[in-house]
Design brief:
Chain lengths: 311, 351
Amino acid sequence: MAKYIGKRLIYMVITLALIATFTFFLMKVLPGSPVASADKLSPEQRAVVEARYGLNEPLPVQYFNYMFGLVQGDLGISINQFKGANVTDVILSRMGPSAQIGFQGMLLGTVLGILLGMIAALRQNTWVDYTSTFVAIVGISIPSFVFASLLQYWFGLKWGLFPVALWKDGFMSSVLPSIALAMFPLATAARFIRTEMIEVLGSDYITLAKAKGASGSEIAFKHAFRNALIPLITVLGPMAVSILTGSLVVEQIFAIPGIGEQFVKSIMVSDFSIIMGTTIFFSVFLIVIILLVDILYGVIDPRIRLSGGKS
Amino acid sequence: MEKILQVKDLELSFNTQGGEVKAIRGVNFDLYKGETLAIVGESGSGKSVTTKSIMRLLPESSAEFKSGEILFGGRDLTKLSDREMQKIRGKEISMIFQDPMTSLNPTMPIGRQLTEPLLKHQKISNSEAKKVAIDLLRLVGMPKPELRMKQYPHQFSGGQRQRIVIAISLACNPKVLIADEPTTALDVTIQAQILELMKDLQKKIDTSIIFITHDLGVVANVADRVAVMYGGKIVEIGTVDEIFYNPQHPYTWGLLSSMPSLDTEDAKLYAIPGTPPDLLDPPKGDAFALRSEYALKIDMEQNPPFFKVSDTHSAATWLLHPDAPQVEPPLTVIERMKKFPGSRYYEGGAV
């Protein structure tokens, strides 16, 4: 197990290096520069600014400088968005709200989705099942920003249950964005669990469990649930991605001072070091999630417990 | 002999989109204490459905009891509630399934799967249940049972898994054990081991077994009595010797002729022509008539009743009617009948 994780960590570093390289050059290919918008600057002033951030160096030099800093854990300093602030500090200071709505959204989505899927499978081809399928289709096909606006309108403006936007009322402020983010994981989990539960409930070992005298709920929870969970783990990765990409939009709509919101702005003003830093941060997050998913497989399914572990 | 289980005039249908499939069309049999009754027949003859209906394991949404009763311990199983049925399943009647590779829960250690019926049906503590489970594993011939309790199904071979399934089924000393083709998915050497084990265990715990199979070789090995099923009905029932050496129904003849034996000389093995009847629209008379070269005119019109051959042997074929013409069974069957005292071809000697 330790050997396996060690190997995975090495792969993770390689993946990160590749992502950093790609992003770096892609960004340089894009038109625009952090100082381009500062029209008031004279060419001399601009040269001074560029020199200060090393933007006047040849591209390979800039690249190696950046990678050298990265290895030391230095993500550089913000060029124009936060005027000289350390990128790491910027990201860390904005992580709180993002992590909170992301975590709440993921939790709400998967738990509700699993419940919905279970109920649908156990009440197959009844109105409960059809309703759950409808919810799943809606959740997958309607983009989160549409949801976000609807939630704002009804729950925020019309009924005044939750703040419409901003991050001022602690937990209450996080409710609507979390729900908006939860829709995709909810729909995905519901679909997967329903399909898998139906399949599992038809399997021989469930018949054997029935033949042992197990009751309906014992069969659903003791025997079927864990087996139905296995394919859901596979989509945990894509779900986490949806939370990330969803947060870019949702944070913007709810005006939440999170990483997503700041990332979008940094792209608009071509703040290279912030874009790079956030990309790397997101990448690390996703790679870690994927590793956790792989480890989780073994925990839930004894058949794929990793070699080296006790059998 | 004491009757443990009685199936009387059982009729069961599946309601499907295509219509009503009459899967069981009037099945009668008794199961005696301590005996092994084999039910044989080809796929779709209703043998599995019959036993699953005893356990009430068929999907309630589509399977429907039309008439008849299943008497067990003075109660009609077709009328019990789910809850009452749960108390019988695994405790009084238990079941072994065909494919040991899929009949154990892959994410549960086998120890827990073994103790589950014990904890469910008997008032014993967890540690006591574990002890019983270890004893059961030892009983079915599993080496190092203590160590293996914590292992998962994928860590066992097919034969071992079937031993575990057997151990689970025997956990509460059931009065009836239903084995639904328990050796079909195993290779031949393991088949023999499992059959030996089952015979051995039956002697030890004195349970009655209903053994479903389409393998006549297995039947000869394990059964006391045999019921031959065709088209949702039992067409012939008798002791194992009566069925093997004095068969009366043309379908039984067909089955026996299509069984390879050590002295089969013909290069080509006999196969019953045609296909099983469509139970969406079962034939009016004898369901086998259309495939039978011995069919009489009346077979096409009227369902044959059971004719008694002996106290233990009866068959549903018009050929046994006093007015029916004498027909010659296939040669392989005549060869068999020559060995059976009481058959019209008997030549002396013993079976």
